[in-house]
Design brief:
Blueprint: E1 2-5, H1 11-16, H2 22-30, H3 36-43, H4 47-50, H5 60-73, E2 77-81, H6 85-100, E3 109-110, H7 123-131, E4 136-140, H8 147-155, E5 159-163, E6 177-179, H9 195-208, H10 222-231, H11 239-252, H12 257-265, E7 272-273, E8 278-279, H13 283-300, H14 304-310, H15 315-346, H16 348-352, E9 359-363, H17 371-382, E10 386-391, E11 405-411, H18 418-423, E12 429-434, E13 438-444, H19 448-462, E14 471-474, E15 476-478, H20 485-492, E16 506-519, E17 525-532, E18 538-544, E19 561-573, E20 576-588
Parallel strand pairs: 1-14, 2-3, 2-4, 4-5, 5-6, 9-10, 15-16, 18-20
Antiparallel strand pairs: 7-8, 10-11, 11-13, 12-13, 16-17, 16-19, 17-18, 19-20
Length: 590
């Protein structure tokens, strides 16, 4: 594991902002927040000031007019969303506002079955919508690569408004209207919105033009926007920072019965202080407790379950649905862990082979619903670009090998743009799309080996041996005397933490182990007391979650001198509150 300290902020930068401590300024510099405007926006996310005019986004003005016309004429409208948390939340946002505006939603909300229909629009659904005399279809979190499907819709008299946030190709589908901030001619100042975030901009525009709706009504949709933004790993700066901050406030008071029941099962007890506009809910609550449960519906069975939960209007229904989703999440965890263990048993030789920098594994027993999670875990654990395929059993495709498909998910390291690399293999693929760090793709089984060779050839040309070494980027080196409640309170001003604004990571050198033991279920966690020789032996409590292997064979013992990388947390127990080091990595000083 390579420990890499981020470059020190220039002296002139530190002097320019005397109102902040040098440590906080170093953290701002690390996050490329280097102007007064950006720093003010970061520290004071404001719904009214930080959200840009939705009409700046290409296609919004035209979409508002077309939707208003559909509502006025009572044309049948349908919504087509993706099966993940972002797509489902976006679909609920659109459904909620169209109902509020009196739209005719007899076309329904369609979320595809991940295991059967796959990603994006499909011909069967389009034909059914046309048969049902739907006139307008709004896609959410998909559509930007559905060229043939949009062409079919056009031929059947359907008008498609694509609402998406994925990066676009040179060619665009021939939809009636496209709303995607990544379009080349789009001048919208913030590109990194989730799909539900893009839907929310359209909603802002619609509401602003409707005098029947009270101004600010749309803020009650921010719980879903925050959930989707965090679930889709969108960067938490700029507009997203304001959306998530206020979304957490809305979530703490949410009117959605389904979310209330889901929070109960996740043992989340929301607290909201109206005077200070503070809540105990945070990005971690969304990322690790709520979003995985909502995503589990589409991974294990059908995302309609999550859609029904988020739109439930009866307490008993919400309770029943949340319990079912919770059970699916537990099953999802088990399936994921089993597949990860199976892959780890396969890849020993691959990890030693420098000519195979990309881990590519496939199996017809692996569910396509979890391969993305598996790819993420393997990528994080071994710091290699990883692509995991669920390969269709050839017997399913009527024994015709040439028709059997492999559906895969890719995750990557910062130094390798996986979407770009996959795009260079497009002649082997049926479809693909995504982001530089995460992508989805499908290909014929017979092309798997060829694809594996080509993607590794591309990776060898881009990556060095050092790129494949796991790295920890450290924000700042601290002395033991720097660790106090004043620093902790300063760090809390940087919340909400998340993608693009990760929790600060610090380096502390030459500490002495005063006590070491393994704790937790299965003795998986490393608990330490660290003594500072520089502070007359002052003791710091520390915990390394899941780091029991750092003490393999009792390597760490009383009296050892160590360097540690850590974050700061407040440990609250029985009414007492103590600062604690959350150990990320530890090295014994030889």
């Amino acid at each position: 594991m390579i420990w890499q300290l981020k470059p020190k902020a220039p002296t002139e930068f530190i002097k320019r902002f005397p109102e902040y401590s040098p440590k906080i300024l170093q953290l701002l510099f690390n996050r490329e927040l280097r102007s007064q405007e950006k720093i003010d926006e970061f520290f004071n996310p404001d719904y009214e000031q930080d959200l840009h005019d939705p009409f700046l986004m290409l296609g919004v003005k035209e979409a508002v007019k077309r939707i208003e016309r559909a509502i006025k004429k009572q044309e049948k409208i349908a919504i087509f969303g993706d099966y993940d948390c972002d797509g489902v939340c976006g679909a609920v946002i659109l459904k909620t506002v169209l109902q509020e505006l009196g739209g005719n939603l007899e076309g329904g909300v369609h979320i595809p079955n991940r295991l059967i229909e796959g990603y994006g629009l499909n011909d069967e659904v389009i034909r059914k919508m046309a048969y049902d005399q739907v006139k307008l279809v709004l896609t959410i979190d998909c559509g930007i690569t559905d060229f043939d499907e949009v062409k079919l819709a056009n031929s059947l008299g359907l008008e498609i408004i694509i609402i998406d946030h994925h990066q676009v190709a040179k060619k665009l589908p021939e939809a009636k209207i496209i709303i995607d901030p990544w379009q080349p001619k789009d001048k919208y100042p913030f590109k990194e919105l989730a799909g539900a975030g893009v839907a929310f901009k359209l909603i802002q525009a619609l509401v602003s033009k409707n005098k029947k709706i009270k101004p600010g009504w749309e803020k009650w949709l921010l719980d879903l926007v925050a959930l989707a933004t965090v679930a889709d790993c969108m960067p938490l700066f700029g507009e997203n920072r304001a959306l998530v901050r206020y979304g957490l406030i809305v979530l703490a008071q949410t009117q959605r019965l389904g979310l209330r029941e889901l929070m109960k099962l996740a043992r989340l007890v929301p607290v909201f202080e109206a005077k200070s506009l503070k809540t105990n809910l945070d990005v971690w609550s969304l990322s690790f407790l709520l979003a995985p449960r909502l995503n589990a519906a589409g991974r294990i069975d059908h995302a309609n379950l999550a859609l029904e939960l988020l739109t439930a209007v009866e307490s008993k229904q919400a309770q029943k649905l949340s319990q079912k989703i919770n059970a699916q999440n537990q099953l999802r965890q088990k399936i994921t862990n089993d597949i990860v263990a199976e892959i780890e048993s396969r890849i020993g030789s691959v990890l030693k082979d420098k000519s195979q920098p990309v881990i590519v594994e496939a199996d017809n027993n692996w569910s396509p619903g979890v391969v993305g999670l598996v790819a993420g875990k393997i990528c994080d654990r071994y710091h290699r670009p990883t692509i995991i395929f669920s390969a269709q059993d050839e017997s399913v495709s009527a024994g015709k090998e040439e028709q059997a498909l492999s559906r895969g998910s890719a995750r990557s390291i910062p130094s390798f743009n996986i979407l770009e690399a996959i795009g260079q293999c497009s002649e082997l693929l049926k479809e693909f799309g995504g982001h530089p760090g995460a992508a989805g793709l499908s290909l014929l089984n017979k092309n798997l080996d060829i694809f594996k060779k080509k993607i590794n050839k591309l990776a060898r040309e881009k990556l060095t041996d050092e790129d494949l070494e796991p790295k920890i980027e450290i924000d700042l080196e601290l002395a033991a005397g720097d660790i106090n409640w004043e620093l902790f309170d300063d760090l809390m001003r940087l919340e909400p933490f998340g993608q693009g604004n990760e929790e600060p990571i610090f380096l502390l050198k030459d500490m002495e182990i005063n006590n070491v033991r393994l704790v937790g279920n299965g003795a998986r966690h490393l608990k330490l007391e660290l003594k500072s020789p520089q502070l007359d032996g002052k003791i710091f409590k520390a915990i390394g979650f899941g780091l029991a292997d750092k003490n393999g064979n009792g390597d760490l013992k009383y009296g050892d001198r160590v360097d540690v990388i850590f974050g700061l947390i407040a440990d609250e127990w029985n009414g007492t509150r103590n600062l604690q080091l959350k150990i990320i990595d530890i090295k014994k000083i030889q």
